[in-house]
Amino acid sequence: MNKILVKRQLSDAVFLMKVSAPLIASERLPGQFIILQLDNDFGERIPLTIADADPAEGSITIIFQTVGKTTRALALKLAGDHIASILGPLGHPTHIEKFGTVVCVGGGIGVAPLHPIAKGMRDAGNRVIAIIGARTRSLVILEDELRAIADELIVVTDDGSYGRRGLVTEPLKELCGRDPKPDLAVAIGPPIMMKACSEATRPFGVHTMVSLNTIMVDGTGMCGGCRVTVGGKTKFVCVDGPEFDGHRVDFDNMMQRLKSYKRQEEEAHHRCRLDAEIASRESPKP
Amino acid sequence: MPPRRGDCEPGVAQTVSHDTPEQLAEAARRELEALRRRDKPLTPRDRRAIPLQDMPSQPADVRRANMAEVALGYSPEQTQVESLRCLQCKTAPCVDGCPVRIDIPGFLKAAADGDFKAAIAIIKRNSLLPAVCGRVCPQESQCQENCTLGKVLKDPAKAVSIGRVERFVADLERDGGHARPPEVKPETGRKVAVIGTGPASITVAADVRREGHHVVMFEAFHKPGGVMIYGIPEFRLPKKIVQAEIDALTAMGVEIHTNFLIGRTRKLQDLLEKDGFDAVFIGTGAGLPKFMEIEGENLVGVFSANEYLTRANLMKAYDKGRADTPIYASRKVAVLGGGNVAMDAARTALRLGAAEVHLVYRRTQAEMPARVEEVAHAGEEGVQFHLLQNAKRIIGDDYGCVKGMACVRYELGEPDASGRRRPVEIKGSEFMMEVDTVIVAIGNESNPLIQRTTQGLKVTPWGTVIVDETGKTSIERVFAGGDIVLGAATVILAMGEGRRAAASINDLLKA
Ligand SMILES: Cc1cc2nc3c(=O)[nH]c(=O)nc-3n(C[C@H](O)[C@H](O)[C@H](O)COP(=O)(O)OP(=O)(O)OC[C@H]3O[C@@H](n4cnc5c(N)ncnc54)[C@H](O)[C@@H]3O)c2cc1C
Ligand code: FES
């Protein structure tokens, strides 16, 4: 049982929680994640990146978007409530060293896991350029935090409601075209965005690291449900990753695998909305 | 799919009955009465003539649609009658076949006399998990393989059903609330860490705690029990039986930390150096699924048996509507492999609603490592066996989902190192199987996490931890046992290894 210490809503569907987890807080390094479960009998186990940790306080910070049943239920919890199970820190930490210039690209909720990596890269003496993208202004998160770290910050929105209009790949390409070109790109966000970023940097030969968030069950290498194809070989994201060379990841296969249960989940969500509707009709609001 | 050469429905094991539990109990009652009426003691010839007691089971067409246990267990009279079949031979070859050397003739004699309490007490001298082992031990290749009665009757399937008697007396004790947690000696102030909560670890925890040492168990999953909880399905080993064993540990004062991954949440070395543990036992099992390494294995609809079974068991995906964890909706399933894991996956797929389940195995039925009873049960439930065949390639549709599997046929060639005739591919025998799901159950290797995060821990080229004859690893005060040492093995062997390591740990802490 882990107590929720702080809860904040960052945007429409994005929440931040500080959760008590002293051992994870002291062991974790940037790039690692946890597996979380809300009910030990019937709950599902979902991976979430550790956005930050405070070993002194014994807390970790998670930032999540309400996309499925568990994240929706998590968003309904309040400070003081408990989370049934948290396992971590899992996966390999990000390889951080002095590379030179590092471009950190975050898409949507991917900005959350990107933040500690950008911080680590800066602390290691790199010049950090951050690009953060979102669909629209209200979905931009952690802008101030990244501005404090990065030597340069570029914000883009799909609809142009804030910063530059367009996709993160455009400024990324421009940066790759500079002389000298960046020494490393780190891209974290939706799979399609990481794929596009990897394609954008490929012609420039800029090494690109992506952090994959696949379906997981145990998170310890026991089931293989998280496997992806990297350079023609099968890798388990939970133990071999979560970070891989974006130029070698088979994103199409990964995206297909992410949809394995889509239909079933939609049906369940539909059922649950129907139930809620029926319930609300049956109990008239005061 | 029309049947082809090499396809086969496995023969129904002789000991699986189609009579109702009531009919079987009634027949046993009459048999027992008749035996009691005799004034002379039973001769070996008389014992030989006593009919083998069939295991009452849920009918195949009923059970393939539910998760409840298949075997229903003997009646008290069946237990007595079956125990009377034991010839009580002086040499007791059955004991040599038992990895933990239970006094089998001893407990069978007590059970034959109707003294079930004495029977379970005898078993418990050597085994900590009789209710589990009575259900999942491969008796036919252990105690029952050596049984003199089976030899005399020239049919190993007619050996005394030792496991079924064991199961009955263990269940009776538990369900009657007579099971008492073992006595714990006064606290010694010594502390032992046990990594994992499978049968090896459970045994170590109990044996070490008994001596008054404080025991803390660490489990990566949110529930303790190891493979017995996440892998072996409810219909073969009800969770409440495993839970009872865990409860017994807690009642003894063993502390269990779930959601705790040694190597990540805390390093093994830290347990010894910072957390004040005097000894550590590694019982982390063989939890790394092997894949075929064939084309198409990462398509949507291909699963390791570990994943499929974990979703179904631990995560309760069969309880649709209540469980949040989804399981793939399959119509035609291929399961690759011939062990217990393959049978469990195949039978689970049937229960989850698959219309067809095809089990594809490279060798013949005689070589299948699965328990004979599980193979028979799977056949009865409608699993179709494709022997001497193997998957070559998995084929996907436009959405990256499985739509078929290319297979090849094999024939048996020369014997290999294990003495089994090696299957050789028949050239040009490739054919297609139309399936939407493929479950790979060709074995497990050991999870490398602890080995990788613990300096100085010696392992074999296969990644299993090396121990000496006391169960000690290459690191002082660190012991290991079970699947992490043996490779994927059995519950009883894991328990035996746990016993040995616990004895060594207790010796170490005595000093
Ligand atoms: C589907 C299936 C069916 C089987 N059927 C049979 C059968 O019929 N008969 C039979 O005798 N045997 C059977 N077996 C084999 C048997 O279950 C195993 O041999 C036995 O459970 C091994 O016991 P163990 O204690 O070594 O480890 P396990 O039972 O594997 O337990 C290991 C535990 O350690 C935990 N763990 C791993 N790494 C860490 C870590 N770093 N930190 C903390 N915890 C960790 C795991 O989560 C797991 O719970 C079957 C196995 C499977 C998978
Ligand atoms: S989540 Fe099970 S192996 Fe990675």
The averaged pLDDT of chain A comes out at 92
Q: What is the SS-derived class of chain A?
A: alpha/beta
Q: Major sheet of chain A: order of its strands?
A: 6-1-2-5-4-3-7
Number of domains of chain B: 3
The CATH superfamily name of the domain at 101-211 in chain A is Nucleotide-binding domain of ferredoxin-NADP reductase (FNR) module
Strand content of chain B: 15-25%
| Total number of strands of chain A | 16
Describe the structure.
The complex is a heterodimer of chains A (286) and B (511). Chain A is α/β, with parallel strands linked by helices. Helix content of chain A is 30%, strand content 31%. Chain A contains nine helices and 16 strands. In chain A, the strands form three sheets. Chain A has a seven-stranded antiparallel beta sheet with strand order 6-1-2-5-4-3-7. A seven-stranded mixed beta sheet of chain A has the order 11-10-9-8-12-13-16, sandwiched between helices. The longest helix of chain A has 21 residues, at 262-282. Chain A is globular. Chain B is globular and about 75 Å long. In chain B, a hairpin with a 5-residue loop joins strand 12 (402-415) and strand 13 (421-425). Chain B has three domains: 21-175, Alpha-helical ferredoxin (Fumarate Reductase Iron-sulfur Protein, Chain B, domain 2), CATH 1.10.1060.10; 191-287 and 446-510, FAD/NAD(P)-binding domain; 289-443, FAD/NAD(P)-binding domain, CATH 3.50.50.60. Mean pLDDT of chain B is 93; it is low at 1-15. In chain B, the strands form four sheets. Chain B has a six-stranded mixed beta sheet. In chain B, strands 4-3-2-5-17 form a five-stranded parallel beta sheet. In chain B, strands 11, 12, 13 and 14 form a four-stranded antiparallel beta sheet that branches. Chain A binds chain B through residues 23-24, 27, 37, 39-45, 69-70, 84-90, 217-218, 220-225, 227-229, 234, 239, 250, 252-253, 256-257, 259-261, 263-265, 268, 271, and chain B through 220-223, 258-261, 264-266, 287-289, 291, 293, 297-301, 303-304, 306-307, 310-311, 315-316, 319, 321-326, 328-329, 399-401, 447-449. The structure holds flavin-adenine dinucleotide (FAD) and FE2/S2 (inorganic) cluster. Flavin-adenine dinucleotide (FAD) binds at residues 136-137, 195-201, 218-221, 226-228, 231-232, 261-263, 283-285, 287, 309, 340-341, 344, 371, 447, 449-450, 482-484, 489-492, 494 of chain B.
